[in-house]
Amino acid sequence: MGASTHELDALLQGKYPAGFSTDIETDTLAPGLDEQTIRAISAKKNEPAYMLDWRLKAYAHWTGMETPTWAHVHYTPIDYQAISYYAAPKSSADRPGSLDEVDPEILETYNKLGIPLEEQNRLAGVAVDAVFDSVSVATTFRQQLADAGVIFCSISEAIQQYPELLKQYLGSVVSYTDNFYASLNAAVFTDGTFVYVPKGVRCPMELSTYFRINTEKTGQFERTLIIADEGSYVSYLEGCTAPMRDENQLHAAVVELVALEDAQIKYATVQNWYPGDEEGRGGIYNFVTKRGDCRGDRSHISWTQMETGSAITWKYPSCILRGDDSVGEFYSVAVTRGRQQADTGTKMIHLGRNTRSTIVSKGISAGRAQNTYRGLVRMSRRADNARNHTQCDSLLLGDRCAAHTFPYIEVSNPSAKLEHEATTSKIGEDQLFYCRQRGLSEEEAVYMIVNGFCKEVFNELPMEFAVEAQKLLNVSMEGAVG
Amino acid sequence: MLSIKGLKIAVENKIILHDLDLEVGAGEVHAIMGPNGSGKSTLAHVLAGRDGYDVTEGDIIYDGKNLLEMNVEQRARKGIFLAMQYPVELPGVSTLSFLKASVNAMRSSIGEQELDAVAFMKLIRSKAKLVGMDEDILKRPINTGFSGGEKKRNEIFQMALLEPRLAILDETDSGLDIDALRVVADGVNSLRADDRGMILITHYQRLLKYIEPDFVHVLAGGRIVKSGDKTLAQELENRGYSWLEAESAA
Fold first, then answer.
1. Are B162 and A2 a contacting pair at CB < 8 A?
2. Which of A30, A158, A390, B196 could form a disulfide with A420 if both were Cys (CB 3.0 to 4.6 A apart)?
3. What ipTM was predicted for this assembly?
4. Is B50 in the A-facing interface, judged by CB distances under 8 Å?
5. How do residues B97-130 score in pLDDT, each as one tens digit?
6. Residues B209, B190: Cα–Cα separation, whole Å
7. What's the pTM?
8. Domain B2-249 sits in which CATH superfamily?
9. B82 and chain A in contact, CB less than 8 A
10. pLDDT tens digits, one per residue of A74-99
């Protein structure tokens, strides 16, 4: 009865508008990974010795590690010797001092993606750091931010200019021994974003990094470090796309957030890496470690993510609620279609007293996709009166996809309170009929129902990005109605 | 306006309606009554074009066109409105944005410009007043957590908003207390018009105390077994349906 599976599938076989590639000259390291590769990356970036040492320790550790296999995803093993670990646009050999010096081809790429870097066309009130393949090519609004005392630059620059901050905080949330992909990242990361918001400063604008993988056979290993000093506030967004290519590309990023006393960090992601074609050829393998440390009392970290892309997503933005009365939040929409596989969720580690966490996860599956929520809530012995509320909702479109929920709960303190709600639903034939009876096409009806399903999460995104996320959701559902 | 001839409907090979004939003219209000399982809701769904019903014989002509060739939204855009017996919930979809999408889908299908937010709100306010709809409810997700009465009133409100040519009300009276029933009936009465046909599907006679139909038909065992004027409804109230079922079986 009702909308048949193939009609819904047709609806969901959307296009990937970010799938173009940019033809520019790049400076690329030959594929392969050994100690020399790491020395070469470090040398290209003219890094101080402390950085090289750290990378080499990470590499030594990584060589003794095995690929984790516990996630609910399936793929042919990655050949780490077949990947190039460094690709940079040639024109950025000396990093451009201003936007006028950025290769026009690259500016055009970002324009096509709807991320204008020229300040006269800027996204209102949003400062952007643009990372193209392995390096940061432009950062906007630096002066305005500097006036407020906020540091917003590529991590490569930070390594040179703010060694004390880097030595203190880099790897302090996700150590180089943390997990297979985090260790690999620590050894070979090439760029990323660094943010420091000083004591008591409310960052005057939204900060944003836009990641773009362009060159073939490269991996992107970026590293982001955000530090919110006492009583400060910052809101940050990252966006990601890649061209359509037949082979799989690896993206193994690390994000570390540190919130000191009374500080708040809001971190939002709109991830639209190329998901591969309908048969599962190509697409990005997205193996990412994101963790926030609520280090100070009353600190607050929230993760909001909209995941529509990647062939495989393996990602658990987490919060360590170390400070008393600290708050962690995770709001997620994960859309999988075609042959996409997502294993995503969060960890809320309650260490401090009166710590609170909220998890809202919305998974949408279509085609033959596999969508998994995996979440851990741990209440430690010291975490008196800790609270968690978890809500996991799955929406299935068609009958060949699947949704899985793996909640892990560990409680060592009797005063802790946890609530877990989970639902799985299908877009009902009766819902579609109702909408169509009021004149909406089947396609419009699906958009409306899916957008409604995600609304709770979109409400957490900054306004500009909520609109973008909604558009992206619609694009990823786009296709002819049968 | 609507002409149904020799309609035979099957669901999963079981025949639900047999040789059904019905003529509805502009400005007329027809009540279709009948016991549970007689095929009343099937008729409503078939008119709206819902999937899952096989039309094995017969024709439905609407404004000179073959209705059976149109899909659900095409029929809706041609002015067929079905007030549902069980209006569905759309979690997270605000009532206002749903209605705006609906009104604009109808408008663009006939080449009219879509309404902007200001014009739309003006229209909403005038229609809300007409059917006594509380504006606060419009900010909530559509039908989500609405009481039975609120859902039904919301259906009548949408009918007022969309100004259909042919309105079909499927058991709109069921599950309503007497006050809610009166509100719904007042709304329907205010929408009676010379160019609008209405089909009221109901199990009980009580709705017809408030909405006076021009014709009453009794559906039993998948056929119209008796047609008459409003006095037929009164007779059904007194005698029940069994005498008609016995009569048609004989």
1. no
2. A390
3. 0.95
4. yes
5. 999 999 999 999 989 999 998 999 999 999 988 8
6. 15
7. 0.81
8. P-loop containing nucleotide triphosphate hydrolases (3.40.50.300)
9. yes
10. 888 888 888 888 877 665 555 455 55
